[in-house]
Write a structure and sequence with these properties.
binds pyridoxal-5'-phosphate, three-stranded antiparallel β-sheet, alpha/beta
């Protein structure tokens, strides 16, 4: 067996321990005589899997009792519609557009009501987070929407926007569980798990109870109402059962690693190794304003397309894969999620140094 260092933005690297455990339990989950893939989501044994996963997530994130945790499908992209369908009582919401995912959410919301773009960083290819301390947010906006960590562009909010009393809704797909969060500052926190938590197919929504109502936009399908899933503890229909099981294993792994405070420290150390090198290198440059740098996704360029391509190719041959940047930024991007070991980043930087010397 030979494993590579996988810098994919998502689906992405998972902890090896978790994969090994899942492999061990593949044919016979804890004496049940079957795989988790094969069991009824209404069985006792599965019930303990999903309940334990929720309990561990609640513990990790310190989620207050007045928030529901939902395990849903449809990816983060389906939330772009579910959020306005469920939350746009006044048919108006404020969007801060800091990248392609925020822009997609903003465009989707326009189908359902008035989405007001209150700030954007599109003028400089989303390479920074705009000042959100005093935005003009419409009085009657139902919520303020952000994408907290911008996977493609490598920026992250270091302070949350001043919502002026409005409900904050955040897409945290690519920074989920990377550091502690104060859940009480948000109305809704959601993310696709395939970036930093588990396999594709699960999206986790953490939502304050008062936002879960029958009063959704006319025509909202049963499956797209938060209430449907909240009332049924995420078992209204068949949930993405195996994916939730793997997420549960990752939650256990995170607890063993020391929780989110420890993850934050670990992630800061890892990111610093790469950022310090980018700051001193004459060949490689980071593309993001320093104070807005993400700990998870680190885009960089050489400034020469052919050299970029050469680097990506040689890196891959050396076992550092999925380093090609997003087509809208070009260059390279190293996604260094929770499960990327520090050693992977150290070795990547050593490889970059060698490449710089040789080219
Ligand atoms: C990947 C990503 C999405 C899209 O996720 P899907 O699950 O593919 O719909 C949305 N937002 C962010 C921040 C992402 O990184």
């Amino acid at each position: 067996m030979s494993r590579v260092y996988n810098f994919s933005a998502g689906p992405a690297v998972l902890p090896e321990e978790v994969l090994l455990e899942a492999a061990e339990e593949m044919l016979d989950y804890k004496g049940s005589g079957m795989s988790v893939m094969e069991m009824s989501h209404r069985s006792k044994v599965y019930d303990s899997i999903i309940k334990q996963a929720e309990a561990d997530l609640r513990e990790l994130m310190n989620i207050p009792d007045n928030y529901k945790v939902l395990f849903l499908q449809g990816g983060a992209s389906q939330q772009f519609a579910m959020i306005p369908m469920n939350l746009m009582k006044n048919k108006k919401a404020a969007y801060i557009v800091t990248g392609q995912w925020a822009k997609k959410a903003y465009q989707e919301a326009q189908i359902y009501g008035e989405a007001v773009k209150v700030a954007s960083s599109e003028d400089e290819t989303f390479s920074y987070i705009p000042d959100c301390s005093d935005l003009e947010i419409p009085e009657d906006a139902d919520y303020v929407y952000i994408c907290e960590n911008n996977t493609i562009y490598g920026t992250k909010y270091k302070t949350l926007p001043n919502t002026k009393g409005h409900t904050l809704v955040a897409d945290v797909s690519s920074c989920f569980l990377s550091e502690p969060v104060d859940v009480t500052k948000y109305g809704v926190i959601y993310g696709g798990v395939q970036k930093n938590i588990g396999p594709a197919g699960v999206v986790i929504v953490i939502i304050r109870e008062d936002l879960i109502t029958e009063d959704t936009l006319p025509g909202t399908p049963t499956m797209l109402k938060y209430k449907t899933h909240a009332d049924a503890d995420s078992l209204y229909n068949t949930p993405p059962a195996y994916g939730i099981y793997v997420c549960g294993k990752v939650f256990q792994w995170l607890k063993k690693m020391g929780g989110l405070e420890a993850m934050k420290q670990h992630n800061e150390e890892k990111a610093k190794i790469l950022y310090d090198f980018l700051d001193e290198s004459k060949m490689f440059k980071g593309t993001v304003r320093k104070e807005d740098r993400s700990l998870m996704n680190i885009p960089f360029v050489t400034g020469d397309k052919e050299l970029d391509a050469k680097f990506v190719k040689e890196a891959e041959a050396a076992g550092f894969v999925n380093l090609k940047g997003h087509r809208t930024v070009g260059g390279m991007r190293a996604s260094i999620y929770n499960a990327m070991p520090k050693e992977g980043v150290e070795k990547l930087v050593a490889f970059m140094k060698k490449f710089e010397e040789e080219n």
